[in-house]
């Protein structure tokens, strides 16, 4: 989590909470990402998912019975994990998607 705090620092302060057998990543009380098996996935919706898909980034899926179920989270771009200013853009996309899908 310390590494993620560094990567997200240009975007803002993020916190984590254990969930889904991994960790939820939160900004301003809103879940914008999740970490599963040491891999970061970012929140997406119908407006932002194409940006992830264009880069060939896979959707987070988990087994449920005999099938795999996709969630609205996509693999974070590798460049964003190495560049805080790049992460700021992706985190903003994830935050906006999370706000749009909030109930």
Question: In CATH's first tier, which class applies?
Answer: Alpha Beta
Structure summary, number of beta strands: 6
- Outline: globular
Query: How many domains make up the 3D coordinates?
Result: 1
β-sheet strand percentage: 35-45%
Mean pLDDT: 94
Distance between the amino and carboxyl termini: 27 Å
Cross-sheet strand order for the largest sheet: 1-2-3-4-6-5
Low-confidence stretches: none
Please work out how many helical segments DSSP would assign: 4
Sketch the major β-sheet. Answer: 6 strands, antiparallel
CATH topology: Yope Regulator, Chain: A
CATH architecture, please?
2-Layer Sandwich
**Secondary-structure element order, N to C:** HEEEEHEEHH
Rg (C-alpha, Å): 13 Å
Helix content: 25-40%
What does this structure look like?
The protein has one domain (about 1-100): Yope Regulator, Chain: A (2-Layer Sandwich), CATH 3.30.1460.30. The mean pLDDT is about 95. The longest helix is centred in the last third of the chain and has 18 residues, at about 85-100. The protein is built from four helices and six strands; from the N terminus they run αββββαββαα. Helices cover about 35% and strands about 40% of the residues. By secondary structure, it is an alpha+beta fold. It has helices at about 1-10, 50-55, 80, 85-100; strands spanning about 15-20, 20-25, 30-35, 40-45, 60-65, 65-75.
Quick recap of the structure?
By secondary structure, the protein is of the alpha+beta class. It has a single domain, classed as YgaC/TfoX-N like chaperone (Yope Regulator, Chain: A), CATH 3.30.1460.30. The chain has 4 helices and 6 strands.
């Amino acid at each position: 989590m310390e590494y993620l705090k560094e990567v997200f620092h240009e975007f803002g302060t993020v916190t984590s909470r254990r969930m889904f057998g991994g960790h939820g990543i939160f900004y301003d009380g809103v879940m914008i990402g999740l970490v599963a098996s040491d891999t970061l996935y970012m929140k997406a919706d119908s407006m932002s998912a194409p940006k992830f898909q264009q880069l060939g980034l896979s959707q987070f899926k988990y087994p449920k019975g005999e099938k795999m179920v996709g969630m609205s989270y996509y693999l974070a771009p590798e460049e964003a994990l190495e560049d805080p200013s790049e992460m700021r853009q992706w985190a903003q996309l994830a935050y906006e998607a999370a706000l749009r899908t909030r109930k």
